[in-house]
TrEMBL record:
Organism of provenance: Acinetobacter tjernbergiae DSM 14971 = CIP 107465
Protein name from the UniProt record: Ubiquinone biosynthesis protein COQ7
Pfam families according to UniProt: COQ7
Keywords: Membrane, Transmembrane, Transmembrane helix
Regions that span the bilayer: 68-89
SUPFAM superfamilies, sorted: Ferritin-like (SSF47240)
Length: 187
């Protein structure tokens, strides 16, 4: 695989997951507005960060992409559905889910930082900055989450499975675009 393809794949993973995260926080925020109003400010801030990350990595991805992945709307809808479903299990479920997903995100961003350090310093620096937000989200969630209940353990496992499914889909669901040389639009 060429270096540009590897970079595109890494960016596609981060970009898709950030859009999914905007959906998750959107879903959590809907539930919080109905039942847990004291959570709204924190969830709003987390949602804002994820939206900024999505746009930042979208700009980087546009520099490399030779394929189209699932439209961003589908990632967001999946995230919203997940966020609503988990939110229905209550306040603790939202925090357990957030802590679990952010743990995985932080691991993935650590891998991405090593990958980009030698390949693209601008993306590397962006990953490091974004990782600060994600670590903050994880710490906030861990302060509130109680993992000592069976349902919390199930939610943590479900969050992990959903996060890795999103990564798998981001890697494998793409459509190659015609090269610009052979494109009917350039003739």
């Amino acid at each position: 695989m060429s270096q540009n393809k590897e970079i595109e794949t890494q960016l596609r993973i981060i970009h898709a997951c950030e859009k999914g995260a905007t959906g998750v926080y959107y879903g959590h925020r809907i539930i919080a507005k109905l039942f847990f109003r004291d959570m709204i400010t924190t969830l709003d801030e987390m949602h804002r960060h994820e939206t900024e990350h999505f746009y930042l990595f979208g700009n980087f991805l546009n520099q490399y992409k030779n394929s189209v992945v699932l439209p961003s709307l589908l990632w967001c809808i999946g995230g919203i559905f997940y966020g609503l479903l988990i939110g229905l299990f209550g306040r603790n479920a939202i925090w357990v889910s957030t802590a679990s997903i952010e743990n995985i995100v932080n691991k993935e961003l650590e891998v991405a930082s090593f990958f980009f350090k030698e390949r693209n310093i601008k993306i590397y620096q962006a990953v490091l900055e974004i990782r600060e937000d994600e670590i903050s989200h994880q710490h906030i969630a861990l302060e509130h989450a109680d993992f000592n209940y069976p349902i919390a353990k199930m939610i943590a496992k479900f969050a992990q499975q959903c996060a890795y499914l999103a990564k798998f889909l981001a890697i494998h669901l793409k459509i190659s675009l015609p090269s610009k040389k052979n494109s009917p639009l350039t003739d």
